[in-house]
Design a protein that fits this description.
Elements lengths: L1 E7 L6 E4 L4 E5 L8 H14 L6 E5 L5 E6 L2
Parallel strand pairs: 1-3
Antiparallel strand pairs: 1-5, 2-3, 4-5
Length: about 70
């Protein structure tokens, strides 16, 4: 499954908010420095979706606010 994630970084409260079935808004407290925010987004998605972190891969948008992730269910 391919998910589009609209990322918000450096927020006070982290959350994962489904917008549609395949589009999510994810907010993280991490700064977008050296992939820290992307790592935290993967952690939050894995908890929300109930899958291991290793089954979620960033396929596009490493330095963008709109990212595409591949999730192996």
């Amino acid at each position: 499954m391919i998910l589009e994630v609209r990322a918000k970084v450096k927020v006070k409260k982290e959350y994962v908010k489904p917008i549609t079935e395949k589009i999510y808004e994810v907010a993280v407290t991490e700064a977008p420095h050296r992939g820290k925010a992307n790592e935290r987004i993967i952690e939050l998605l894995s908890i929300h979706l109930g899958v291991p972190k290793s089954s979620i891969k960033l396929i596009r948008g490493a330095s963008s606010k709109v990212k595409l992730f591949k999730v192996n269910l």
